[in-house]
Amino acid sequence: MAVSNALNNRGGVSAETREKILEAAHKLHYTPNLVAQSLRNAKTHSIGVVMCDSSQYVFTQLLRGVEHAASAANYSVLLANTDQNRAAEAKAIDLLVSKRIDGLLLAAPLAVEKADVQRLRSLNIPYVLLMRSSEFPNVDVVTNDNYLGGYQSVRHLYETGSRDLFFITLNSSSGRERIHGYRQYLAEQNLNYDDCYTDSVLPQIEDGYEAMKRILALGHRQGAVCCGCDVIAIGAMNAILEAGFSIPEDFRLIGYDDLELTQYLRVPLSTVRQPIYKIGTEGVRLLLEKIHAPKTPYQSVVLQPELIIRQSTLPGAQQDPHATK
User: Same structural domain for residues 285 and 184?
Assistant: First the structure.
């Protein structure tokens, strides 16, 4: 009992005895049996993370935020990838729960409808949605303000003089929220989003490339392209330059996310920066609050995006006066 109290920094032993026990543990290279502790305490000090596609650049920074925040709280992270497949997502959740995780983070999940949330609740472990909101109430969520980010991006294109607008969007809850922002700004200018060319694709470079080729195949030779994410914009940029057009002289182009590589492209990409790393750390914070105090009220944390202006929309521009810090 004295050894256990000393190693776990509990009372019941004198300072002298505790010092001797710790010295002996050090000499014997003793490490605590975490499995035995988890069985005794019904806690594993591990959290599960389900990602829709860990190969996407956007999730690298998110996972860093999760791992740093979890490590600081002495929690380990178990990762499962679903390759944007709903069945694989459900299987990944079940697998992580079987590992007796203390809580679950779902990064850009596909399943956010009422039935999906009810299933998560039936697992009886805390969970937090990252980068996706849910219309179902009483869910812990961390997102960026996609509506504002969408509004900022199309406003910037309009203010640079663009009137021929093309939208290559994401078919997801965050993508739809950005579209609401597009619609609102255009309505304020007495324009209709539905009158613009739109295409919905997956967040992949190849999809952005093919979508832009479809625009060019229609005979368009100038305009502004608003992309649902940076990887779509990278594909669109390749198609524009490959066809012999210039950016931004012929086509202006804006993305969303502000991936690190976007400033190093052949034409540095204007984009909307979402605080991806902070989404990860905030997700861990909410999850740990729920783990330690299950009756903590549900929270919806909405972080602010920032418009980043580079040469793909306005040569020589360093910043946008309307940027949200």
Answer: no
Q: Which two tokens stand for residue 62?
A: 């998110």
140 and 279 belong to one structural domain: yes
3-state secondary structure the chain: CHHHHHHCCCCCCCHHHHHHHHHHHHHCCCCCCHHHHHHHHCCCCEEEEEECCCCCCHHHHHHHHHHHHHHHCCCEEEEEECCCCHHHHHHHHHHHHHCCCCEEEEECCCCCCHHHHHHHHHCCCCEEEECCCCCCCCCCEEEECHHHHHHHHHHHHHHCCCCCEEEEEECCHHHHHHHHHHHHHHHHCCCCHHHCEEEEECCCHHHHHHHHHHHHHCCCCCEEEEECCHHHHHHHHHHHHHCCCCCCCCEEEECCECCHHHHHCCCCCEEEECCHHHHHHHHHHHHHHHHHCCCCCCCEEEECCEEECCCCCCCCCCCCCCCCC
Q: What domain count does the chain have? A: 3
The answer to whether the pTM exceeds 0.85 is no
Cβ pair 244, 271 in contact under 8 A: no
For 160-199, write each residue's pLDDT tens digit. Answer: 998 899 999 998 888 999 999 999 999 999 999 999 999 9
* 316 within a domain of the structure (yes/no): no
The residue count of the chain comes to 325
CATH at residue 280: 3.40.50.2300
